[in-house]
Amino acid sequence: MSLTDQHAVVLGGTSGLGLATAGLAARRGARVTVVSSRADSAERALATLPTGTTAEVVDLTDSALVTALFDRLGPVDHLVFTAGEPLALTPLADLDLDAARRLFTLRYFGALDAVRAAAPRLRPGGSVTLTSGTAGLRPGPGWSVAASICGAVESLVRALAVELAPIRVNAVRAGVIRTPLWSGLPDADREQLYAATAAGLPLGRIGEPEDAAEAYAYLMEQRFATGTVVTVDGGTLLA
Ligand SMILES: NC(=O)c1ccc[n+]([C@@H]2O[C@H](COP(=O)([O-])OP(=O)(O)OC[C@H]3O[C@@H](n4cnc5c(N)ncnc54)[C@H](OP(=O)(O)O)[C@@H]3O)[C@@H](O)[C@H]2O)c1
User: Fold this and answer.
1) Residue range 67-86, pLDDT digits in tens
2) Cα 212 to ligand 1 centre (Å)
3) What is the DSSP letter of 7?
4) Tell me, what CATH number does 73's domain have?
5) What's the pLDDT band for 88 if we cut at 50, 70, 90?
6) Does some domain include residue 239?
7) Is 146 close to ligand 1, i.e. is its CB under 6 Å away?
8) Residue at 207 is within a domain
């Protein structure tokens, strides 16, 4: 198995893209640590993940806790960052600048801070994989902040790939994927969003977490791509 004896740390690994990635990495032989902010979601995830997977409960917006986490974890081969929360879409006319700044806290600054804390622990041959979304390249009205976060993460990947080389640094750019991220929407609205999105895509369906997990696993396993973004979107960028 390609990840045998590798330590993969999945920040946000208790749900959605991260949970699927943690499961796939473990099945490919990695020793996996999943990290999230709530003990109940960590427990639920561990119940579904292969034996040997461990969980840490850490709020990734708290820099001191993030530093302590990597002190505890010791050497890491692969760092995956999928932690995130639903993004509120806001027309420019209704922009609340403090709320906009807060949206960068976890998805951009949380990712940056996690890499800062993990970098000294990353073993040769290791990798970092961050998370972006197609909204960065194909935003709709109201997506100014969400799209900007994606753009910032993708630029961060290129800068870190240069600074941390030969550690490889890449990102997965996801289209709409069926995960608990969307669970805040009323059921009927969510199904309507999924169906409308699927109908407009070349592949005729939205993504499943396992579709994205394949991309994170590829970016951990391959040896020559760095500073790149792998798109997993069913053709969203072409639609
Ligand atoms: N799903 C999509 O359609 C899609 C598309 C494009 C991009 N993305 C992006 O991909 C990322 C993952 O999305 P997803 O769909 O997998 O979301 P998800 O199912 O809601 O999972 C989010 C994960 O982040 C963790 N988390 C949230 N706040 C945290 C914090 N402060 N500290 C530590 N962990 C925290 C959650 O666990 P706890 O609640 O236990 O903290 C959970 O494990 C997000 O950034 C999302 O915006 C998703």
Assistant:
1) 999 999 999 999 999 999 98
2) 13
3) E
4) 3.40.50.720
5) confident
6) no
7) no
8) yes
Question: What sign does the CA torsion over 58, 60, 62, 66 have?
Answer: positive
Q: Which domain holds residue 90?
A: 7-232
- Sequence letter at residue 197: T
How many whole angstroms from 84 Cα to the centroid of ligand 1? Answer: 3
Identify whether 1 is part of a domain.
no
**From its phi and psi, is residue 204 left (phi > 0), alpha (psi between -120 and 50) or beta?**
left
Number of domains in the chain: 1
Atom number, ligand 1, closest to the C-alpha of residue 41: 40
Please tell me whether the overall predicted TM-score, pTM, comes out greater than 0.85 for this model. Answer: yes
Query: Whose alpha carbon is nearest atom 41 of ligand 1?
Result: 37
Q: Based on the number of CB atoms within 10 Å of its own CB, is 5 exposed (0-12), middle (13-18) or buried (19 or more)?
A: exposed
Q: What is the pLDDT of residue 87?
A: 77
Strand partners, 207: 177
69 in any annotated domain: yes
58 CA to centre of ligand 1 in angstroms? 14
d(CA 47, CA 177): 22
Residue 121 neighbours by CB under 8 Å, 6+ apart: 70, 73, 74, 75, 76
